[in-house]
Amino acid sequence: MSDTVQTDVTTPETPAEAPQTEVVASSEAAPAGRGDRRRDDRKGGGRRDRRDSIREEEKEFQEEMLSIDRVTRVTAGGRQLRFRASVVIGDGKGRVGLGIGKSGEVQGAIEKAIRDAKKNLITFPIVNGTIPHDVAVNFKSSALFLHPAYQGTGIIAGGSVRKIFAVSGIKDIIAKQHGSPNGITNARVTMRALRALKPLALVRDFSKKAEDPSIVSEDKKPAAKKAPTKKKETKSE
Question: Which domains does the chain have, with CATH numbers?
């Protein structure tokens, strides 16, 4: 009888001690996990966010890919396969550049093209979202005509010409291209046309002369009156 009573008394004590040890273990493990999370945040998370924000701030140009072509060079050892990338960049405020790069990898060709575009930046005037005057330019077998447009017209152009206007900051323009369908040739003729634009102060405004009749052009000045010629008297015999 005494043995059975002792076993009944000792059995409820063992399960009561077990959950206490589990609770203590969980309470001691919790702060260790929080510390690990804080360390992970300090090591990786915070630094990556800062790096991403710095990269976004340093990127001042918008990049637009014109084309990526696969080109080959024939040498004595055989054919060498490379990639050619043409990229146009712009800040949206009247600065734009065109670059071409070649490399054995696509990413390397794009990086070279962006570096080349930054070296060939040009600046042109923008007046109310459009160009100040008409311009027509020829380059090799390509011809381009640009005409300013009213606000809300949009960019009426196609191909590489449209991509250049999109990153340059022009919002309203009418463009017509003739000749070669080559994208790089059309991009070069567009760059020449933008380089040929003059500031608004140097552009002569002909609309004022039509409105003000007091302004007389040089072509419409009255001609000077000539003195009447004397007739020769004929002697009658």
Answer: 62-200 (3.30.230.10)
